[in-house]
Structures are given as C-alpha cells and as structure tokens.
Amino acid sequence: MVVSPPDKLMPRRCPGAIRADHPTHPVWGYRPPDRIPGLSAGTILEILRVEQRTGQLVGTALLRYREFLSPPRQWPLYPMPDVCSCPSCRLDDVRNARDVLEDALEQLPPRARAELRRRVMALDKEYRRRTLPDLWSDQETWWRRRLTVH
Ligand SMILES: [Zn+2]
Predict the structure, then answer these.
(1) Is 123 helix (H, G, I), strand (E, B) or coil?
(2) How far away, in angstroms, is 111 Cα from ligand 1 center?
(3) Most buried of 32, 100, 113, 147 (most Cβ within 10 A)?
C-alpha cells in the first residue's frame, strides 16, 4: 500500500497569499473589470460574464499586461515564469495573462471583442517592440516565443 506523504495532500502554498496574509488566495490581486478605465459599460458587462463563466480573471489579466509594459521607456523586458499556479498568481507571468486575454477575445460577443481587441493590440505592439524574439522556441503562440528570465 502506497501512502502519500502529508505534503502531497496539501495544496501548493501561494506566495501571494502569504505576502498578503489572505486566507482565500485565489482572489488576491483580483481587479474587477469595472476598475479598468476606458472600457465601455457594455464591454465591462460582457467581460464580467466571461469571468463568471470561465473563472478566468480577464480584467486582472489586462491590467497585468499593461503593468508589465510600464514604465514605457524601459527595455528590453523579459517575461518571468510564475511561481504559483492559482488563477491570480498565474498572471504574474505576463504570457499567461496574454493567454487569458486570447481566450476572452474568442468568447466575447462581436462588439465587446472589438473593443477589447483594440486595447490588447496596442499592448501587443509594445510587447513585440520591447521583448526579444527567442529564435529557438517551439512555443505555439508568438507571445511565448520571446526570451524570458532564467
Ligand atoms: Zn497563488
């Protein structure tokens, strides 16, 4: 009979939760889409629906993507792999945030999709300009074929 050691039964510890001393760590750092300036009310509502349906933090992902690219003149930038895989900490890796945005774009109705896409495309342009291509990468999406911190 195989008995797992106790630590195998515990969920992974979350640096964000420890840092914030927060018992329900998945909501740590959550930014509801209504806190995102410049999005129309209709788009915010549709994003909220996607968040509720999928459990993905779309509003937070957009903000993390923007934060990664701030301040504007610092370059080059290197995406950093996440250290915790919970829905909030995962977004510390900007590439995961970009994945969430891509999923959301696929799920949004046309008008909201067009509005969010304009935002994302502006950030994509900046991301392309300020990260370096990884010529040996075999990753599927272009935002993952960039050099990362090791
Ligand atoms: Zn976490």
Answers:
(1) helix
(2) 33
(3) 100
Distance 15 CA to ligand 1 centre (A): 6
pLDDT in tens, the chain (150 residues): 444 444 444 445 555 544 444 344 555 567 787 778 889 999 999 999 999 999 999 999 999 999 999 988 778 999 998 888 888 889 999 999 999 999 999 999 999 999 999 999 999 999 999 999 999 999 999 999 999 986
CA of 60 to the centre of ligand 1 (A): 14
**Burial class of residue 74 (count of CB atoms within 10 Å of its CB; 0-12, 13-18, 19+):** exposed
Residue 136 CA to ligand 1 centre (angstroms): 30
Distances (CA, A) of 56 to 44, 59, 72, 120, 126: 14, 9, 27, 16, 24
Distance 76 CA to ligand 1 centre (A): 27
Q: Which residue do the tokens 């959550």 mark?
A: 30
Q: Where are the domains of the chain?
A: 25-144
How many Å lie between the centroid of ligand 1 and the Cα of residue 12? 8
Q: Tokens 């996607």 belong to which residue? A: 50
